[in-house]
Structures are given as structure tokens and as C-alpha cells.
Automatic annotation (TrEMBL):
Entry's Gene Ontology molecular function annotations: oxidoreductase activity, acting on the CH-OH group of donors, NAD or NADP as acceptor
UniProt keyword terms in alphabetical order: Oxidoreductase
Descriptive protein name: Short-chain dehydrogenase/reductase family 42E member 1 like protein
Source superkingdom: Eukaryota
3-beta hydroxysteroid dehydrogenase/isomerase domain boundaries: 6-288
Family annotation (PANTHER family): BIFUNCTIONAL POLYMYXIN RESISTANCE PROTEIN ARNA, SHORT CHAIN DEHYDROGENASE_REDUCTASE FAMILY 42E, MEMBER 2
Classification via InterPro entries: 3Beta_OHSteriod_DH/Estase (IPR002225), Lipid_A_modif_metabolic_enz (IPR050177)
BP GO annotations: steroid biosynthetic process
Amino acid sequence: MALRYIVVGGSGLVGGQIVLQLLQRGQAPSSIRIIDFVPPTRDELQTPMAKDVEFAQTDISSEASTLAAFKKPWQAISAKLPLTVFHTAAAIRPSERHPLVYHRHARVNVGGTANVLSAAKSAGADIFIFTSSCSVALRPVTWFSPLWRRCPTNIVQTMTEDDFSAPLRPREDFPSNYARSKAEAERHVCAADSPVSGLRTGAIRPGNSIYGGAGDFLVSATLNLPSLPTCTAPWVQNWAHASNVSLAHLLLEAALLGPHVDKARIASRPFLVTDAGPPLRFDDFYTAMKAVAATFPTVRYPPPVLMMALRGSSNFGKTITWALWIENRDHRQFYAITSN
């Protein structure tokens, strides 16, 4: 089936991998458009064929900018083809939790997603698939638990999609602002599914860290560090390679396009995706990288008491932030003094 594609965030890790897999399966470059804030820089997207993919520089937090990128004319050979939109762009600041800085994520992840979805509808999109996150299902860990508990609350969690069928949790029940913003955007996208209008939507929740390719936030970022202070060595969690995450998007698209599929069970919902095999321990990752990498940073293990002290200073910073905000809210002033 001949199709055309818009990949929002196509200069990034997952979006770029989707573009590459589309080209590898024979998709014409003229039928693919990358929408992103910056042009792609990864080597695989600099080949003669990949460079023929159209790029539209866009700020998705701007409704006008997003709509203009979607409304750009296509080449005549592709202009009338059905349109699939993959929305992979996101603001990612995993350490931010304070409500006073939630807007830093919401502006792109919630408002930007709404703009992309609106523009996709205006462009007559048939399929809209959103890149969510498995962190949507997670809850924050309570590190300072009562002494009679053997371990912190929520230190062990099983990732599922069950939360999607329940009401959206309060902000404080998410591990980060990023997770909360992804949860909001995911529900907005899935609620837009409409068999009547012909727009079918769904979401992919990659879990948990995404790696693969130069510039990723896990392997590549670690290898570029001179020193790696970490408290995560014993932690165990699922990972997902960017190529597997990309393939999950393409498989969901195929299912939504299939004529003999029960779309009521597939559309308007998220699917969690991880690599095959058991979850990986971070210390095993460090060991593997030491064995195969030409250079690897020195791994340092700060004492737990230091981490507790940092956590205490974080809570103190929150208190100061709230006090300053309350004191100055009548003057419409905002002071962000927080370790979060």
C-alpha cells in the first residue's frame, strides 16, 4: 500500500530510526517529511537517499509553526497518498519533579502534542502514532521509608498498561514531570481515535531507557563522560533499542491499517515495548562497556549517606522555592531556587 509519512522529531533517536527503516523497506524519500526543531545530523541520515527526505524546521509548541509544516505542499507523486504521522518529539528532563517547573515539559509534551494532533487532522491524516514512555506507569520511590520497612516503598515495580484504564493519577503519583506530561499527552492522542472521521490513533510506551546509535542518552552519553558517579549499579530495569522501538511503531501502523484486524482492541490505547530477554542490571552494562569500548569512564560509587544528604538538600530547596513563590506571587514574580 502506497503511503506518505510525517515523522515529528525525525532528527532524534527514535524518529530518525523510523525514517531509516522506512527507507530500508523501500519507501520513496519524496513521500517522507521530517518535522523537527533542528535538522538531522546522524551519519545514517546523511546518505544520498536519506538527504532527499524533506526537512521542515518547526517549533511544535507554536500552533502556527506546526500547521505550516504540515501544510507544506508535497510532490505530485505523493500528494494524494494516505498519511501516517509518527509523533516522537519530546522534552526530556528526567530529574525534574517540582510542580513549579512542570511547564518546561508541558509546553512541548502536552501543548506540542495537541498542536501536532490538530495539524495532523487538518492535513487529513489517517494514522497518528505517539511515542509515549513506560515511565507513565511508574510511581515515585519513597526513599525515606519507616524504619520497620525492609526496603523503600515502590523500589520494585512491574510495568504494565493497566494504568491507562484508570483515571489519570495526581501529579505527585508520577516519578517525574516528564512522566506526567507523557501521560497527559498519551490520553489526548488516544481519545482522538475516531472510526467515523477515519483517524486511528495509538501509542507506544518504550521501556525503560532507549539506546542505540550515536548521541543516545545512555550508551553514547556514558562513553563520553570522563568519570561516572553512580548509585544505580545494582538497579534492574528493562531497556529498549531504538530499532525495536521504531519497529513497534511500524507494526502498530500496519495493524491499524489492516482490514482484518479487530481495531477496537488495538486503536486508542498504548502498547508497552521492551527488548527481549530479562531486564538488565546497570552493573552488567558497565561491565559490558568496559569489555568492548575503546575507552570507558571510571565508575565511582558515592556512599549512600551522600545520596541521602543530597536528597535532604533537595527537599530543603523545594521548601525555599515554595516560600519565595508564595511571598512574591502577588507581585507576579517567580524565583526558581531549587535543586530539582
